Description:
Blueprint: E1 5-10, H1 17-29, E2 33-37, E3 49-51, H2 53-59, E4 62-67, H3 69-78, E5 85-90, H4 105-113, E6 118-129, E7 132-136, E8 139-144, E9 151-157, E10 160-167, E11 169-173, H5 181-184, E12 197-202, E13 206-207, E14 212-214, E15 220-224, E16 231-235, E17 238-244, E18 248-262, H6 265-277, H7 285-290, H8 294-304
Parallel strand pairs: 1-2, 1-4, 2-3, 4-5, 5-18
Antiparallel strand pairs: 6-7, 6-18, 8-11, 8-16, 9-10, 9-15, 10-13, 11-12, 12-14, 15-18, 16-17
Family: Belongs to the NAD kinase family.
Subcellular location: Cytoplasm
Main location: cytoplasm
Amino acid sequence: MDRIRLGLMLHPTRDVTEVVGIIADWVARHRMSLAVRAADRHRVPATVEPLPADEVAATCDALISIGGDGTMLGALRSAVRDPKPVLGVHLGRLGFLVEVEPPDLPAALERLANKDFVVERHSCLACDVCGDDVVAFNDIALVRQPGSGFVTATLGVDGQQYGYYRCDALVVSTPTGSTAYSYAAGGPLVSPASDAVVITPSAPMAGISRSVILSPDEHIRLELTPGSAPVAVEMDGLVIRDAATEGAVEVTYRRDAGLVVRLDPRRYQERNQLKLSLLDLPLLPEQLRELLPEGLREQVNRRALPPMR
């Protein structure tokens, strides 16, 4: 049997020493190997093999993302040409993609090695940004520079013009990304189980003023019009083009572009329900009780029982 190699994707600034140590010790005991991007070699033990950034996903059997949703998105993008299962270890704040907490990591690694997990398939936006090919698992956004006017762009769908936007920002998101920038701009929450593309203007001044939901099979073209303010283009929150004043962004939807490891899909869904309650979707009291640890839940349930007569 070929030796299993796992690739590490690290949060760019957080201290990952403890989590990497747990993984490195476990891998050594199980006669596997670890790889990391060469730029991160100073953050990991010497037993972890440094590789060029574009080779980690290509040469590993699975990836371990250590951080929050941003790190997870980066891991998914790195493997988009040959999707590999990605296990997310949580060091972030309000994460919707990551599942495993550091104390649960040894058991999670055992299940990963034994292929005792299910795969959650994620779609992405394949984008042509003024001639450059990029992918986004959350969203692609055209954002005005402060004090310089507004984003002014036309919307084309399958070659037909549908209108124009004049706004602070224009966000194109996947269902997964509907809880991120699109939601902050006033867009709808879309089930991650659906296939759709959401276009949401932020602070619209004229033109289309509400979210538009399109089929995943439609080809989208957003073209800056003469007189538009200089626009930054963001991919999953990362600036990939700054101060563009002309050009177009073309977007197509790509299914099954990312594979996320799920160890307990039901529990993960319950946790996400709680996170969604922080986004103005409040839960019922009995739903909140179900999200408590078992021991504490039993105590709460006992206190909630009516007194005997």
